[in-house]
Amino acid sequence: MLDPSDRLKPPFCPFCRQRLEPPVELDGLWFEFDGGVCSCGAHYTLDPTARNGGAVLLQAVVQACGGDWDRAITLSPGTDYEEGFLAGYNALNHRVGGNAFGTIYFVRLKAPAEQPESTGQQQGAN
Ligand SMILES: [Zn+2]
């Protein structure tokens, strides 16, 4: 017994589980799709048609690189960044579920050389 209203949920970030702001038009020559950035640092990009797939994911990587395509194409998923996606997104009501077929792609860069054990040096050497 599913409550229909319970099936439509606000989209959330797969990394930090916070609710997302609706994707917006991005400034930038290369940015074809709407997107945004989560407070945890994950960048997201909306594929409204579910047909753009790789191009949308690539844009999310470029967003995460601050628009630097040269850097973006050198990064590897799983090594340099984490990726995630949220399917069934409806941009009209900013909800997930039902028959919507938009997809939001997420990319969060991994911190370079993040070591759990650090020897004395705290941050600040920058
Ligand atoms: Zn997040």
Compose a concise summary of this entry:
The protein starts with a helix and ends in a 17-residue tail after the last strand.
Bound molecules: zinc ion
Total beta strands: 5
- Helix-strand makeup class: alpha+beta
- N/C terminus separation: 56 Å
**Low-pLDDT stretches:** none
Helix content: 10-25%
Question: What global shape is seen?
Answer: globular
Strand proportion, as a percent range, falls in: 15-25%
The overall pLDDT, averaged over residues, is 87
**Radius of gyration over alpha carbons?**
16 Å
Encode the helix/strand succession as letters: HEEHHEEE
Number of domains: 1
Q: Biggest sheet, open or closed, and with what strands and sense? A: 5 strands, antiparallel
**Major beta sheet, strand line-up:** 1-2-5-3-4
Query: How many helices in DSSP terms?
Result: 3
How would you characterize this protein structure?
The chain is of the alpha+beta class and 126 residues long. It has one domain. Helices cover 15% and strands 22% of the residues. It is built from 3 helices and 5 strands. The protein has a 5-stranded antiparallel sheet with strand order 1-2-5-3-4, covered by helices on one side. Strand 3 and strand 4 form a beta hairpin. Bound molecules: zinc ion (ZN). Zinc ion binds next to loops. The site of zinc ion has 7 residues, from loops.
